[in-house]
Amino acid sequence: MSGINDIIAVDIDIQDSAPRAVAFDTPLLMADAPYVGSRLYSVSPAGLNDMVTDGFLASSRGYQMMSAMKKQSGGVGQAYIFNRTTQFTQALELIPDITVTSVGYVIAFDISYDGVTSSISHTVVTNTVDAIIDALEILIDASLAGIAGITTTPDGGTATKLTLIPGTAGKFVQLDGFGREIMLTEAGADGSLSAQLTAAKAELGEAVYGLLIDSYAETEINIAAAFAEANDMLFLGNSADNGILVVGTTTDIASDLKGFGYHRSAVCFSRYMSDDFAAALLGRQLGQVPGTSEWSGQQLTGVRADTLRTAAHSSARGKRALTYTTDRNVAHTWDGFAASGRFFDITHGADALKADIQTRAYQVWINAEKVPFNATGVAMYASAIRAALVQAEGTPAVPGLVEPGWDVIMPDLVGYSAVDKAARRLRPILFNATLTGAIDSIDVAGTLTL
Q1: CA atoms of 174 and 240, how far apart (whole Å)
Q2: Is the pTM of this model over 0.85?
């Protein structure tokens, strides 16, 4: 039937979208997953249930990392898991340190594989590397975890190391609670991680900021760290590499990252592989307002603290590995810096400030019919930049990245470059601000008199 639309046709296009800010609270997890590409999960009990519904096992690395993040109060609310199309094949090398052991010494640890955990305990009878490896091999092979699919491979008739290999690529053998009598090294080869990271970033773009990977391998941690640096992300890797604790050793993963001077990456040393120290810390810290929370002095739920000798701990800290130990009966993270020595809270806050300035300035440009090249237009951009710096100050209760008293200097239009004006480019806009920083240690001196 004919009607008003035949006489007066009206088409209204509603444009109500606004520039979307960069997600500084969302990590990307690279792990074996039961789907193609990525999926977004809530970091919550409901999110973990969704993962199980999608086909994740509770023993899978993706589920373990999500679970570690979920345990942290005030942590991230969501995370993407990108399926690794080429899985990493682990080769965990175990070497007993017979300078620590002696006849009668008890070597004890838990070993986990594919959802099965077994406790291993061996009292040293013959204090040689070969004898200890033989004994541990027998115990692991007979354990439920070993039967679940761990292959134990000595490197010769007189063994110098024992290699633990999972029965399925993408699954991992995990040791927890071992002491300095066990030296671990992850010797697995790269599982095409670089190409998969590139694919994940192409799909997700600025929707992800943090980065975690399923493996503990030096090769893959190096690849992930380089990727994070090139793509303005923050990356933490897990490692139980004994070389981190040895003064003078320079072939360990912490030395690698420090040598590259990475501002956005660090390795987390832990002798509790299944606790996912890196995921717990990254998940907690990305949930904080950028620049308001330092990464040292943090207590992590579900992460067991290491007991390290002074020299070993000093070695790890000197190589700028992050550690989790106990003082006065309270466990806490140490240092909070990246491999370069730059503190993560500064990088996190500076990234957010940069993005906030970009977003606010972009809103000025996109929402105006035209920003005039005169004092009015300059003031519009100045207001946007000042608003971002106010945001970066935080509050007295929750200090932010910068101190009050910053300054924004806009270009003087008198005598302004005719070339830049013709190109409609306003520059340079400068600001000066002082980082708030943090106090991590104090020195106290006093005098007591009668």
Answers
A1: 10
A2: yes
